[in-house]
Amino acid sequence: MTAKKTSHIPRPDPATETPYYRQIYDRFRSAIAEGVLKPSDRIQSARALAKELGLARGTIETAYSLLAAEGYIQARGQAGSIISPDLTPGTAEPMPIRPVGSDPLVTSYRPDTILPFQMDLPALDAFPRKIWARLGARRVRAMQPSDMMHPDIEGLPELRAQIAGYLRVSRGIDCSPRQVFVTSGYRQTIGMISHALLKAGDRVWLEDPGYPRNYTGHIRVSLNDGSVVELRQPHFRGGVREPLTRDELIAKFHGNVAYGAASPQYGQSLLDFCLNLQTESDVSALAELEA
């Protein structure tokens, strides 16, 4: 019979910039490394620990998901979760604390460096997983045998048709779906172009430096009185170094709506829906907006 240990998990520190789920994850790892939690020890359920610490259940589930993905805990169904029996003392080293003054921009895409509005990552502790799972299950149930075959290497025909229609209406580009290729990113795109147009030994021009870590800008204006005014934007506006405020994000949203030729009323309705997304039981209201 395994023991239940949770007293080593104090309340998260709200004063630190580390997300709550990350603090829970780090403390479990430290407890395992220090032998406080031993292999096969049973841990509290996400619901019970969330109630004890005064946190949202999704926050605890996110921390548990990270621990399970890295092999520190194992789910046993209705029996709960336990520390992985195969772990040995010292397997999990406590997470190092970044010293004050170190460069905060040298980051990786591992969970310990997740920052607000980081590209390609949602807010893991606030992501509506239940809604996402329900929509995914609905889509899987509607699958047809043809949906399980290897997809077209040029991209889904329906998506290519929509892209071609958008380009024709919004950009005045006369093209057909067969001229549209959907790729996984700029690297695959450059690779396809290179294989199609270049031969071995061909010389090409490349940017130096290459793909930028941050997008920069430089404006230089010569005035009538002979003076020169320059403005440099050394990094991506809205990135880690210079995040946008809530008001700036909303203003940018309205600007994108106007650029897309949508009505201000539609833009405000869509914005209200996004701001209240966490309180929505499903996303059917979004379909009503589109209608």
Main traits of this protein?
291 residues; mainly alpha; Arc Repressor Mutant, subunit A; 3-stranded antiparallel β-sheet; 9 helices; 37% helix; extended
Description:
Residues 1-7 and 96-111 have low confidence and may be disordered. The strands form two sheets. The protein has a three-stranded antiparallel β-sheet. A two-stranded antiparallel ribbon has the order 4-5. The longest helix is centred in the N-terminal third of the chain and has 14 residues, at 20-33. It is built from nine helices and five strands; from the N terminus they run αβααββαααββααα. The chain has four domains: 1-93 and 121-129, Winged helix-like DNA-binding domain superfamily/Winged helix DNA-binding domain (Arc Repressor Mutant, subunit A, Orthogonal Bundle); 157-197, no CATH class; 212-242, no CATH class; 246-290. The chain has 291 residues and is mainly alpha-helical. A hairpin with a 5-residue loop joins strand 4 (217-222) and strand 5 (228-233).
Helical content band: 25-40%
Query: Which regions contain 5 or more consecutive residues with pLDDT less than 50?
Result: 1-7, 96-111
Classify the beta-strand content into a percent band. 5-15%
CATH C-level category of the largest domain: Mainly Alpha
Computed over alpha carbons, the radius of gyration is 25 Å
Specify the number of helices: 9
Structural domain count: 4
CATH architecture of the largest domain: Orthogonal Bundle
Assign an overall shape. Answer: extended
Strands of the widest sheet, in order across it, are 1-3-2
Strand tally is 5
Overall pLDDT confidence? 77
